[in-house]
């Protein structure tokens, strides 16, 4: 009987694997998984896509302001990704010289192979005298993707300017020889091909040193990033980068560097120094962009103890208070981010990871600083306001749509 059960499980597993490979290879030669990301500013957009089986060295983006007249084209940079059973070809193209606040139509592919359908996106407004609308969430998988129908409808209505997915995707991208990642990216295409889909990593992207995540996304950030003048594939800043959007300076960073130190410690220090440079520059430019918003994956404060969260203080010490960088317990804590973000007057911090939505009062060092009675704590807050929005896997995404005038 025991052998029979093993044999039956094996058959089931083999059948399941075969189905997954078949799904993975469905339309394998087609240009697919199209998604876009903001470039340096409102005049640029990065288009990223994949083919599974076949390389197409002539992959291009045709684009224009009319859906039946795609007059311009940009040749993509092609790279090959391989890891165990996973493999695919990535195509990345940087569109430049776009007009602000303009709808563009585009397709990807090539004459020699095939073309995708025609997609569209709208570039951002220029300047700071407008109020952007963002969808912000963490924790969206290929199963239990309860927010996706709402998100899709909202995108079709043009409710947002940018989507931020702040870590934990697909659960997990690398699984089943990368086919879970392929299917997730196909699932996202209706929204991510139309709206800039900006990302950073969560704990579920950690596999293989975040390489599956890195292979699928193309964040570059603004012109102040250290590798700004490099070629496109050397300009990728998928873990930390910044953007100016309307009246806000937005800084995206990795909380995961503090937890996966088996991939090294140096990135904690590099990121911290970059963050401080960014915050100094953002403050110098504060009249122009008065909001400073940071986003990462794991929140400093938690409502559910455990999962790397201190049961007594309900805080995640390494990110919030720092790490023993020289690895001796007696040494000073370094590179904690709470003091840094407080010192430079960050207004708003958004995180995912915990599968619910919470908005805190302004908080610093575990308390909400006192303020005059009857005042609105969120108006010109005395400390950063924290929002946890890791609930895409449940029912709703959270979006910020300012209603006050500038
Ligand atoms: Fe997470």
UniProtKB/TrEMBL annotation:
Residues 1-28 form the signal peptide. CDD domains: MPP_PAPs. It catalyses: a phosphate monoester + H2O = an alcohol + phosphate. It comes from Blomia tropicalis (Mite). Transmembrane segments: none annotated. Keywords: Glycoprotein, Hydrolase, Signal. Residues 32-123 form the Purple acid phosphatase N-terminal domain. GO terms for molecular function: acid phosphatase activity; metal ion binding. This is Purple acid phosphatase. InterPro entries: Calcineurin-like_PHP (IPR004843), Metallo-depent_PP-like (IPR029052), MPP_PAP (IPR041792), PAPs_N (IPR015914), Purple_acid_Pase-like_N (IPR008963). Belongs to the metallophosphoesterase superfamily. Purple acid phosphatase family. It is an enzyme of class 3 (hydrolase). Its EC number is 3.1.3.2. Pfam families: Metallophos, Pur_ac_phosph_N. Residues 134-355 form the Calcineurin-like phosphoesterase domain.
